[in-house]
Write a structure and sequence with these properties.
four-stranded parallel sheet, about 40% helix, about 120 residues, alpha/beta
């Protein structure tokens, strides 16, 4: 069985969508899971853990995928080296846990996640 994995960094628009601030808008990650089917959604975030959990609870209603959360601490939200390391470490960990030969990965890049483009 092939695991279809979505990798995404939670952004401010995603949080706003989960808080109802976008009306019916789903935000980038919400749109992705509503348009495609994934077995796992891997979320990376440097927001407060309470905000992350609220978003995950909201997202669980939008997808049947298993949600994996990776919280990271950054010295700056624009420290691309730290962002890159967090992204690659997360991807490698998920591949190790799920078996890299059985993965079909989708990397969700939005304007707020420029460092993920280097992964």
């Amino acid at each position: 069985m092939i695991n279809k994995i979505l990798f995404a960094w939670i952004g401010k628009t995603d949080l706003r969508a989960s808080q109802g601030e976008l009306g019916d808008g789903l935000g980038p990650i919400g749109q992705a899971v509503s348009k495609r089917t994934f077995s796992h959604v891997t979320l990376i975030s440097n927001y407060k853990k309470e905000e992350e959990q609220h978003f995950i609870d909201w997202l669980k209603v939008k997808t049947a995928a298993t949600i994996l959360k990776y919280h990271v601490e950054l010295t700056s939200p624009t420290d691309f080296k730290e962002i890159y390391e967090a992204a690659t470490n997360t991807i490698n960990d998920v591949k190790k846990k799920l078996g890299s030969k059985e993965l079909q990965s989708t990397y969700h890049l939005s304007p707020g996640t420029p460092a993920m483009a280097a992964v």
